[in-house]
Amino acid sequence: MAESTDMDQLLIAFKKFAVHGDTKATGKELNGKNWAKLCKDCKIIDGKNISGTDVDIVFSKVKQKTSRVIMYEEFQKALEELAPKRFKDQRKEEALQSIYRLVEGKEPTNIGVTKVSKTATVDRLTDTSRYTGTHKERFDDSGKGKGREGREEIVENTGYVGGYKDAGTYDTKVKGEK
Questions:
Q1: Taken in order 104, 107, 108, 111, is the CA torsion positive or negative?
Q2: pTM for this one?
Q3: What is the CATH number assigned to the segment(s) 2-103?
Q4: 3-58 confidence digits (pLDDT tens)
Q5: How many helices (H) and strands (E) does the chain have?
Q6: Does this UniProt record's set of keywords contain Zinc (predicted)?
Q7: Does the structure show a pLDDT above 90 at 76?
Q8: How many angstroms separate the Cα of 76 from the Cα of each of 45, 51, 71?
């Protein structure tokens, strides 16, 4: 019974990595990029026994010739292929269980992907209290933008040219002539 729970956790991890970064993904197939991310995030790639190249080679070996993705069964074969290389000092079954433990229940990390710049220059450029001229009028005292109301020249879709002094007199002129 413990093994079926482990396999459920493995399937959950597979699905989470399969849908990572792709809004149209169904979670039934894993592409090469997400396979490499799985191996990196789950620490299968250790830099000594297994490298990124090894992971790519195993992916190419287990997938169908014309396919660009692997299914769950092929994913398990890939882990079986990597297990003896990652855990050289263990027997094949123990190595497989160890590699399953590395993957079980894990999900993709986004830490370190995009870093927010915390320099004095960026702070100075984004501090709305230091804005001057027309830009200053577009923000309230708290620094929140006023949106369209903060702009002085809002376009009026009346059909008249902006500098036309007799705007709105068309009906009176046309009716007055008849």
A1: negative
A2: 0.60
A3: 1.10.238.10
A4: 555 678 899 999 999 998 888 888 899 999 999 999 999 999 988 899 999 999 99
A5: 8, 2
A6: no
A7: yes
A8: 16, 19, 9
Q: Where are the domains of the chain?
A: 2-103, 114-152
| Tens of pLDDT, residues 113-164 | 666 667 788 777 777 777 777 777 777 777 777 777 666 666 667 776 767 7
Q: Which residue has the tokens 């079986």?
A: 80
Cα–Cα distances in Å, from 112 out to 116, 164, 177? 10, 57, 74
Residue 132's Cβ-count burial label (10 Å; 0-12, 13-18, 19+) is exposed
Amino acid at site 128: T
Q: Rg of the Cα trace of the chain?
A: 31
Please list the helix, strand and coil fractions of the chain in percent, rounded to the nearest 5, in that order: 50, 5, 45
Alpha-carbon torsion 42, 48, 52, 58, what sign?
Answer: negative
